[in-house]
Design goal:
By secondary structure, the protein is α/β, with parallel strands linked by helices. It contains 7 helices and 6 strands, in the order αβαβαβαβαβαβα. Helix 3 links the parallel strand 2 and strand 3. The longest helix has about 35 residues. The model has no long low-confidence stretch (mean pLDDT about 85).
């Protein structure tokens, strides 16, 4: 090969490799920024405390893309039948005790993230509520971050209905459930996590988070304790 041609080819390869390295670096930076943005916990208006708490039930991210038909999460799917059966019983008991049931579902509108993983793409089947879950209200709020309160409409709903106590169910204990709890604490809510009503990707992760919640002053209720706390219904 002509030495001049070899040097030209070598230079082209060098520039190509540099471009690939820069592109990978930019992608990694973008993913880190996206991860940071979605995990940030919001602050908001302090809720009104009253002598008689008014509760709402939050059902977080029990969707087709997490526990349902389009899920790629093995841990969630394995736990889904038990979780949904439990949450459905919690929903029924909430309804007959006039506790509003609020559904939270996640969706992603970021074009690049959806190119990498479109399971939660806005408008897709995966963003719909799991078909096995009992839906008893139209109080359904979308979010694009882990924290359910990142959607200001949820704040407005709670304030309008004078809610100051939250029962928490759904997933994941270490991510969206945790971020929503932190956001609720920022606003002054009384928070009660129903143990059997939440899951994580691993049993050990859930156990760790339950301990962490309790250490941070969050009330942990078993399903039996929740049932005892509320009036029985026919």
């Amino acid at each position: 090969m002509n030495p001049l041609n070899f040097r030209v080819m070598k230079k082209k390869i060098g520039w190509s490799l540099l471009f690939i390295v820069l592109l990978i670096g930019a992608l990694i930076s973008y993913l880190f920024k996206f991860s940071y943005d979605v995990s940030r916990v919001s602050t908001g208006r302090q809720i009104e405390r009253t002598a008689t708490p008014k509760a709402a039930l939050l059902v977080i991210d029990i969707q087709e893309c997490t526990t349902g038909k389009t899920s790629n999460f093995k841990g969630y799917k394995l736990a889904s039948d038990s979780l949904i059966k439990t949450v459905n019983s919690i929903i029924r008991l909430s309804v007959c005790n006039n506790i509003p049931v609020v559904y939270i579902r996640n969706e992603v509108s970021d074009y690049l993230i959806n190119l990498l993983d479109d399971s939660m793409e806005k408008g897709s089947e995966g963003t719909e509520i799991d078909h096995r879950l009992l839906v008893v209200s139209d109080h359904i709020f979308k979010k694009e971050k882990q924290d359910a309160f990142s959607n200001p409409e949820l704040d407005q709903f709670m304030i309008k209905n004078k809610v100051n106590e939250l029962y928490i169910t759904g997933l994941d204990a270490a991510n969206c459930v945790n971020s929503t709890i932190l956001a609720a604490r920022n606003r002054g809510y009384l928070i009660r996590v129903i143990d059997e009503g939440i899951i994580a990707d691993k049993k050990e992760t859930k156990e760790k988070m339950i301990k962490e919640f309790a250490q941070n002053g969050i009330t942990i209720l078993s399903l039996a304790e929740f049932q005892e706390k509320l009036a029985n219904c026919p």
